[in-house]
Give the backbone structure.
Amino acid sequence: MKLNKEFLIHKTDKETVLVPTGNAAFSGVVRGNKTLGAILELLTKETTKEKIISALKERFDAPEDKIEEDVAKALSELSKIGALDE
Amino acid sequence: MKKTYKIAGLNISVSSLYENVHRLCADYISDGEPDIAVITNQSDIDFERKKADGRYSDGYLETLAVYRKIAETMPEHDTVLCHGSALAVDGEGCIFVAPSGTGKSTHARLWRQYLGDRVIMINDDKPLIKITKNGAFVCGTPWDGKHRLSANITVPLKALSVLSQAKENSIRQTEPSEAYAALLQQVYRPKNARALMKTLDLIDTLTAQIRLYSMECNMDIEAARIAYEAMKG
């Protein structure tokens, strides 16, 4: 899976924002924390859910099941708004 | 038919199928060499019809198509279209942004009631904002909302207020990070990814240059007094 090309990642000083172009059906803005920022960065290249979880476990000092839960939730939400090419 | 108009400092030639857009832009006529060329066709009008909520003439829909094409190219010229009500007080610009139906135009009207002739409406619906290293400027355009309130002028933009409805009036200054998402929702997002990237960079620059506020307001004139006292800098 990979981030759809109609969605851009933009980082402000405090958060990561995912913004669709005018071509995307979704017209909102997704705001997220560091975890979502890391997930989005990984999605700029072809990857899998398992690879994302593995990368986040290395990067963040959080319980494994919490990371798995966060990744699953983020991917589900991104899929719903058409931000993922699966 | 084809005519050229000077909008936000740029000469824009507009080739249209219908006359409506030329009537709309009459105050902005220019004989300058075009910086941007906009050409519309029936498919642009059909696209606007799909987006529009209601039944409109092709001529009216073409006016929207022309502005969409202008907005698409504006980031290249360090300019963005912002859905908001912009006015100037004593020559300094401020803009109110919020989702449709919140009361941007109503709030701007309260400022006119409170401050009288000191207020000039720059654009009550879709002004352009030019963002430079030397500051931001808000520009009047002919696409000025249902009350047709605008002026063909450009003034320095000093403040932006994100409005929300409330029973009681209150206003506070905010950090760029707080205003960013709300502003992003009201700025035109180009179809072209590179133009969108430029738009996001321009918003970063803009929010670092001007004073930002979050205001909860009702429809009493007191809302204008509180807002003006806080925003006058």
Remarks:
- Chain A touches chain B through 18 residues (CB under 8 Å).
- Residues 2-85 of chain A form one domain.
- The two ends of chain A are 4 Å apart (CA to CA).
- The mean pLDDT of chain A is 93.
